[in-house]
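User: Could you write out the 3D structure of this protein bound to adenosine monophosphate? I've included everything you need below.
Assistant: Certainly. Input first, then the structure.
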Amino acid sequence: MSLVVVGSMAFDDIETPFGKSNKIIGGAATYIALSASNFKKPIKQISVVGGDFPVEELEALSNRGVDLEGVQIKKDKKSFYWSGRYHMDMNTRDTLETQLNVLGEFVPIVPESYQDCEFLMLGNLLPEVQLSVIRQLKHRPRLIAMDTMNFWMETAADDLKKVIREVDVLMVNDSEARELSGEFSLVKAAREILKMGPEYLIIKKGEHGALLFHKQQVFFAPALPLEEVFDPTGAGDTFAGGFIGHIARSKDISFENMKTAIVVGSAMASFCVEKFGTQRLQEISQDDIDERIQEFVQLVNFDIALI
Ligand code: AMP
């Protein structure tokens, strides 16, 4: 039984108040796989790249236990490209350019060896592609989680709503939750979004943590207060990778275990922001991860005597 990850693999060009990355490797599926592979192997990846995508980067993923059979390589075409600029507060960014390139005409093919999919993580990319992957699976996975972004709310709203109807867990950030629901209050926004299909909704609030909504229940996990945030790109995807990686390892899809998964996701995201792009995720060890998760436990652990 396996974990299948779908999403973009990309070249990113990032500008923060601290510097410029120039063209580096990114993409939702890249971050998700790098993060999730700390908890579960193999990660069965579905994506598309152009002939310009470095072979060494594919090899590095494969060495970490990422199965690339579902990654199409279009030799004569260019990979997806995204560039963005962060504002001084690092919580907000402007997309400067999105070139879909190979992603724009991507027709995913789910390999036969991925049909044992038990957990499906639909990372950010065209809703039509996300839907096609769900439809190609002969057995419905035990849990389908999905991440998306405002770009698709603005360019493919109808397809997006169709996918949202099919998933168990939806992850969006606070501004996307507001855009999707038309509600400013996140509690009202969550109520509206849960009516659209998913059983669980995670609203990511960057340095202010993440909220998990399920029926009438709400859980909140803070983000680790970090001295320096260098580059938040990919933090949402890294969070998703930690979340689904923990769920796939434990095979437990209860609300209680999702709380732990959110803490694991938040711990992984806290590494991602420490350096440009995927750099920090490539360096960390299992000990670093365990230590970081303990820091989270300490952060929220307190006794209270009620009088
Ligand atoms: P995050 O910071 O978690 O929102 O993710 C950033 C990653 O998403 C970058 O590495 C980009 O390559 C990728 N990305 C940006 N825009 C899109 C898009 N429209 N579709 C798919 N991936 C995207």
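The radius of gyration is 18 Å.
User: Perfect, thank you.
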